[in-house]
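Working notes for the structural subgroup meeting. M.R. asked for a predicted model of this chain before we commit to crystallization trials. I am recording the input and output together here so anyone reviewing the notebook later can reproduce the run.

Input as submitted:
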Amino acid sequence: MKVTRNRCKPKGKTNGHKTSPRMVRIILKELKALKARTEGKTYSVIADEVGYASRGAAYNAVMSGLDRTVAEPTEKMRKIELTRLDGLHAAYWILAIKGDIEAAKFVLKIQDRRARLMGLDIQGSDEKPEVHRFIVEVSEMNGNNGGDPTPGQA
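Returned structure, recorded in token form:
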């Protein structure tokens, strides 16, 4: 039976707090390991200089440090952007379903951006048929059968 350990959860007591004294020491040590790695040092050298038992432990510290410094801020920014997109979507949705073609196009752009941000889109596909159908339906609701707004209309 193979047991894997989560790199982000250190062994020992941290009382479940990210700011416990032990956790702060672990993070500072990981930062030293990250700095050494960015300077091009090998994991064996990092283990010796920073105080890890092996090069594998130094590697795990560097990976854990990368996870902390890259993944957490990225996920927070993703949540902020999704909240902003939700606000825009709510504001333009009412106009779009009432037949405003430009608002409908903007809603679709918001939905596309949201899908890309969440990794929901399939790579390599162009405009999807359902997008075109939605624009045509909104256009027909607005009394324009061509799918494009006529001059002076939008």
